[in-house]
Structure formats: structure tokens, C-alpha cells
Amino acid sequence: MTVYPPAPGTEYPFAVADIAHQAAKLLGPDWTSMSLRWGTRGRLTSPSGEEVVVGVDHDEDLYVNGPTSLEPVYLEDEMPPRSQEDLEHLAAVVIRVVREIV
């Protein structure tokens, strides 16, 4: 039997939704987040009720899509998350985009 590494669930230390949760935490107590589709997407909700989705497309590119965005903002230059520091970095990048589109 051939085993193909990495084992399911071990490639990344956290889900895409964790990036949204960390971003909400850093944005402040009036922001909320929710995990969507088994953690493959996350939704941020602003204090005024506007929703922003953080997700990964079929090419595995990270994106942020705002409440009035016609096209998502892709963060394809960002590295795949590997550690807690990467999670905080990605959350900070998401926050910069969120502040531009909300």
C-alpha cells in the first residue's frame, strides 16, 4: 500500500476560516466571524452588519470578497500558512483589504 503524504488534515496547521477568526479578533470586539463550508471559508461581519468573505478559490489562491465587490481581491502573493506567525501575518493582510473595501 502506498501512502501519499501529507496525511489529510495535516498539510496546514489551521483552516482558512481561522484567518477570518484571527482578523475579527484583531479588528476589535465589535467584529464577528463565522466558519463556512467546513472551514474552507470564513465570514467577517462589521459592526454595521457588512459581510466580508475570506476564502480560497479552485486554484487555491486566498481571496477577500466584500459586500459590494464585483471581483474578489486575491492575495496570491501570500505564502501558504505554516505557523502561528503566518496566521497573524495573513490576518493583518486581510485586515488591510477589509479596511479598503468596507
Layout of strands and helices, then pairs:
Layout lengths: L15 H12 L4 E5 L4 E5 L5 E6 L5 E4 L7 E2 L9 H18 L1
Antiparallel strand pairs: 1-2, 2-3, 3-4, 4-5
Strand order of the largest sheet: 1-2-3-4-5
Total number of helices: 2
**Rg, Cα atoms, Å:** 14 Å
Based on secondary structure, the structural category is alpha+beta
Distance between the first and last residues' Cα? 51 Å
> Overall mean pLDDT score?
85
Low-confidence stretches: none
Shape: globular
Q: How helical, in percent, are the residues?
A: 25-40%
SSE arrangement, N to C: HEEEEEH
What fraction of the residues are assigned to beta strands by DSSP?
15-25%
What is the makeup of the main sheet? 5 strands, antiparallel
Question: How many beta-strand elements?
Answer: 5
Overview of the molecule:
With 102 residues, this protein is of the alpha+beta class. It contains 2 helices and 5 strands. It has helices at 16-27, 84-101, and strands at residues 32-36, 41-45, 51-56, 62-65, 73-74. Strands 1-2-3-4-5 form a 5-stranded antiparallel beta sheet, covered by helices on one side. The protein is globular and about 35 Å long. The model has no long low-confidence stretch (mean pLDDT 85).
